[in-house]
Specification:
The structure holds two protein chains of two kinds.
Chain A lengths: L1 E2 L2 E2 L10 H8 L18 E4 L2 E4 L12 E3 L12 H8 L9 H14 L5 H8 L10 H15 L6
Parallel strand pairs in A: 1-5
Antiparallel strand pairs in A: 1-2, 3-4, 3-5
Helix pairs in contact in A: 2-5
Chain B lengths: L14 H5 L15 E7 L5 E7 L1 H4 L4 E5 L23 E2 L5 E7 L2 H8 L3 E6 L6 H4 L15 E9 L2 H6 L3 E9 L11 E6 L5 E5 L4 H12 L6 E4 L16 H11 L3 E4 L2 H7 L6 E9 L5 E13 L5 H11 L8 E10 L16 H16 L3 H6 L21 H12 L2 E3 L2 E3 L11 E14 L8 E10 L5 E7 L9 H13 L6 E3 L18 H25 L6 E9 L21 E14 L5 E10 L7 H20 L5 E2 L2 E2 L18 E6 L22 H13 L10 H9 L15
Parallel strand pairs in B: 1-12, 10-11, 14-15, 20-21, 24-27
Antiparallel strand pairs in B: 1-5, 2-4, 2-6, 3-5, 7-15, 8-13, 9-10, 9-12, 13-14, 16-17, 18-23, 19-20, 19-22, 23-24, 25-26
The chains are: A alpha+beta, B alpha+beta.
The complex binds FE2/S2 (inorganic) cluster (2 copies).
One FE2/S2 (inorganic) cluster sits at the interface of chains A and B.
């Protein structure tokens, strides 16, 4: 597989999940674990561009695929447009849910650069946040959409 | 030039790292040679332990130790009283009791061995209902106590019989609130090791590190200087991290085995292993004149304290002071009881005894309004406390008392009009479909800021200035163990320092909490850090400026100035304990007020409730960082909506039925009000730093009663038991009795 653009070759057990491989074996601790049952979205990463829950994604399935984690969004110290929007909208409090939300939004905007409000809500509805009440997260998405529309920084 | 000073929505100091996944939470730390530890949890909610046999577990390759009560030097802990065993010895009293800790080279080995620790139990009868638990013949949760009653607190004011005789109308109600789970996204985790100075060091999430230290040192029989706690990023707290979780367990293992030890709880362990918000059974009887003025209240509340005391006594103290609401009432009889059961320990959770009372007092207010044919805003306006009013506890309310301002602001935003005859509600709006009913509901609430009832609340800050040769300040470092749990305190303290020092906020750094480097600031709770630690930082900055000026006068050439200051709540208002005779006291240092108005749509076919619009008027004094304040309001409303409509931690016979996030539902983006309008009334707190005060908890309080009052307005049904699930609403609409609800029995004492 490739992780954040770099080829990675690693032996995994059949009962290992991608989240643990990323965190414990590759040291990519930006991917968070909140529930291990696919309920909270904190562990979201991109697999071949799709947002998936890495806590219930068997590591074996990742073979040959391209994985992008939160660490892979920042390029040469430059924040991704989604990350920047989260900063500007103050969309993180404790921040534990934040990497998961950022990844979900990144996947949404890659697929659909002009989502409607309903589409945004639908994309966010699988992720839990206990701190923000989601309003500032929704603002961040709107901000990212606007900036992308204005030609700002899509990779 | 003080860019980023008080009143500006400067960027959170930690946010760039957080959006990149670069902030480390306790589970993100590892050390070479690190061992893994797992808990063996109680097998029953109430049972005697006959024998613990670790031999099979110890035989698993890689297992180094199975720690039991015999390994704990002083086997007790607890935030208020030491009534909780670190590892259960003779008895387990709830499912969250810890019986043993397995330590192994790998997590797999530890987990495998956990199932092989044989514990021989003798099951005991369970007390799972606080009203039952108060009966004289009830099984005792703690045999060394004469009864399960942990504490009874009361207030007597005036003469309620006289008050009811003077009433034109009397309304009664019983209300029940559930256990509530904090559900912070980051489960408990900790890493302990012996640092280079020989201290047992615990990296963990906490709210009150210096109090954790006291408890760790006590259990390990070590001097305080030999224990250290480092608090990295914390993934939410909400009161749930005020008590000890993994701290003593990992410290004990590291101390015994002299190697780093890490423990990470799963979500199930987190939900099972930490306490919950107290359920309240409340019974209210209120009288008022036909002009809508309160004449008397009689209120009784029974709190389920769960298996151990935790902070149940201070929660009860708080609750009793708030049960009658932010209203002036001449005659009051208020009784509150906290009772031990074999249910989950109950503890601090956003509101700390101020969250449950509004579910009673605000529904009582609307019932009075209905009985008198009065507008709900008008009747509140006639009774609200104002500066100088005497509260039920006999104290005079301070200048920050801003209930009226918040009600006024919310009412105007919702379309109420102030007319010569009084406040008038807006007209009905158009329905979207025939099975939908729309309603509007108002609720006011208030909360203390800082620790109450005579507690010597204090916070200490150290400020270090780096000076240029001309004496100008280059940068400042603030040391203060005010834990950043997500609320933004680090940013706010930086802004307060910047304001006081006349420095750009980017030149102020706030040190990470480490008990070896930052002085005690007290807990990240009671909405207190802006007020307590904010005042401490301002005071330390002012002293640093004086020292700097003196250094300049003396031409000492100093390049570094250090000042330390402690702010004490007593310096503002000396609080006192409840008087033994009538319960009168000076309960709180300061206060925060809020009003919310909810507009809901009830589907009368399914009972589902959607909040269409929520208006939240909150008084934070002068907001230091409006954007962060808005975040507190939105997050508070999130918890209020969950409380109102969906959240219920369920135990049956002491067994947990909601141990996962797929069983315990918190609001997703789709469950939130479609529109949130937040207003800050900005009545300054003359005792707060630059007029600011805390607001972390208040926005949670009015949400649920506002929604319940709106459901009543829409449908005519009173939902008196939270949460208002579709089923409960559906039943209430059809008059179908609910399954075993809170019995409206009178408690015995
Ligand atoms: S940790 Fe994967 S969904 Fe919660
Ligand atoms: S910011 Fe804390 S869970 Fe979302």
């Amino acid at each position: 597989m490739t992780v954040n653009g770099r080829p990675v070759s690693i032996e995994v057990e059949p009962d290992e999940f991608l989240a643990d491989v990323l965190r414990d074996r590759l040291g990519l601790i930006g991917t968070k674990i909140g529930c291990r049952e696919g309920e909270c979205g904190a562990c979201t990463v991109l697999v071949d561009g799709d947002a998936i829950l890495s806590c219930i994604y068997p590591a074996l399935k990742a073979e040959g695929r391209s994985i992008v984690t939160i660490e892979g969004l920042t390029r040469e110290g430059e924040l991704d447009v989604v990350q920047q929007a989260f900063v500007d909208a103050a969309a993180a409090q404790c921040g534990y849910c934040t990497p998961g939300f950022v990844m979900v939004v990144r996947a949404l905007l890659d697929r659909n650069p002009h989502p409607t409000e309903a589409e945004i809500e639908e994309a966010l509805a699988g992720n839990l946040c206990r701190c923000t009440g989601y309003y500032q997260i929704k603002e961040a998405v709107q901000l990212a959409v606007e900036r992308l529309g204005a030609g700002g920084g899509a990779p | 030039m003080t860019a980023g000073a008080v009143g500006e929505s400067v960027r959170r100091v930690d946010i760039e790292a957080k959006v990149q996944g670069r902030r480390r939470y306790p589970q993100d730390f590892s050390l070479p040679g690190m061992l893994h530890a797992v808990v063996v949890w109680a097998g029953y909610p109430h049972a005697r332990i006959r024998r613990i046999d670790p031999s099979e577990a110890l035989a698993v390759p890689g297992v180094l130790a199975v720690l039991t009560h015999e390994d704990v030097p002083v086997n007790e802990y607890g935030i208020n009283i030491y009534d909780q065993p670190v590892l259960a010895s003779d008895k387990v009293r709830w499912l969250g009791d810890r019986v043993a800790v397995v330590v192994a080279e790998t997590l797999r080995a530890a987990e495998r061995a956990r199932d092989l620790v044989r514990v021989d139990y003798e099951e005991l009868p369970i007390v799972d209902d606080p009203l039952e638990a108060m009966r004289p013949e009830a099984t005792l949760v703690h045999e060394d106590r004469r009864s399960n009653l942990l504490k009874h607190i009361y207030v007597r004011r005036g003469n309620v019989e006289e008050g009811f005789a003077a009433a034109d109308v009397i309304v009664e109600g019983t209300y029940h609130t559930p256990f509530v789970e904090h559900a912070y996204l980051q489960p408990e985790a900790g890493l302990a090791y012996i640092d280079d100075e020989g201290r047992v060091t615990v990296i963990c999430a906490a709210q009150w590190p210096h109090d954790d230290l006291r408890q760790i040192a006590h259990a390990l029989a070590l001097p305080l200087e030999q224990v250290r706690e480092v608090v990295p990023a914390v993934g939410g707290a909400f009161g749930g991290r005020e008590d000890i979780s993994v701290q003593i367990l990992v410290a004990l293992a590291a101390w015994r085995l002299r190697r780093p030890v890490k423990m990470v709880w799963s979500r199930e362990e987190s939900i099972r292993g930490h306490g919950k918000r107290h359920p309240f059974h409340m019974r209210h009887r209120w009288g008022a004149t036909k002009e809508g003025r309160l004449t008397a209240v009689e209120i009784e509340a029974v709190l389920d304290a769960g298996a151990y005391a935790s902070t149940s006594v201070p929660v009860l103290e708080n609750a009793v002071s708030f049960l009658a609401g932010p209203y002036a009432v001449p005659h009051a009889r208020i009784d509150g009881y906290a009772v031990y059961t074999n249910n989950a320990v109950t503890m601090a959770m956003r509101g700390f005894g101020a969250t449950q009372p509004p579910v009673g007092y605000e529904l009582q207010m609307d019932r009075l309004a209905e009985a008198l044919g009065m507008d709900p805003v008008e009747i509140r306006m006639r009774n609200l406390l104002e500066p100088g009013s005497i509260a039920v506890t006999g104290n005079r309310m301070p200048a920050v008392t801003s209930a009226r301002e918040t009600l006024r602001a919310a009412a105007l935003a919702a379309g109420w009009r102030e007319e010569p005859q009084g406040w008038r509600r807006p007209g009905a709006s158009i329905l979207r479909a025939s099975h939908l009913r729309r309603g509007i509901g108002v609720a006011c609430a208030y909360k203390n800021v800082g620790y109450s009832f005579g507690f010597d609340d204090r916070s200490t800050a150290i400020v270090e200035l780096a000076l240029a040769s001309d004496g100008s300040i280059q940068s400042a470092l603030v040391r203060c163990a005010a834990v950043e749990v997500g609320q933004g305190v680090t940013t706010v303290l930086a802004q307060l320092a910047a304001q006081t020092l006349g420095l750009e906020v980017s030149r102020v750094r706030v040190a990470l909490t480490d008990t070896a480097a930052t002085p005690s600031a007290g807990s990240s709770s009671a909405s207190r850090h802006v007020f307590m630690s904010g005042n401490a930082v301002v005071k330390a900055c002012r002293q640093a400026l004086e020292k700097r000026d003196a250094a300049l006068r003396e031409e000492s050439g100093a390049t570094r100035i250090v000042a330390e200051a402690t702010f004490r709540g007593h310096d503002v208002r000396r609080t006192t304990a409840y008087d033994i005779v009538d319960g009168h006291c000076e309960p709180h240092i300061s206060y925060s007020f809020g009003t919310q108005i909810a507009i809901v749509e009830v589907d009368i076919e399914t009972g589902a409730v959607q909040v269409d619009r929520l208006i939240a008027a909150t008084n934070a004094g002068t907001p230091v960082n409006p954007r962060l304040c808005l975040g507190q309001v939105a997050g508070g409303v999130h918890m209020g909506v969950g409380y109102a409509l969906m959240e219920e931690f369920i135990q049956q016979k002491g067994q947990v039925r909601t141990a996962r996030l797929s069983e315990y539902h918190i609001p997703t983006v789709a469950d939130m009000p479609r529109e949130l309008e937040s207003i800050f009334t900005e009545v300054p707190d003359p005792d707060g730093p630059y007029g600011a005060t805390g607001l972390g908890e208040t926005p949670t309080l009015p949400t649920a009663p506002a929604i319940l009052n709106a459901i009543h307005d829409a449908t005519g049904a009173w939902i008196t038991e939270l949460p208002a699930t579709p089923e409960r609403v559906w039943r209430a609409l059809r008059g179908v009795p609910a399954q075993p609800a809170a019995p409206a029995r009178r408690p015995c004492p």
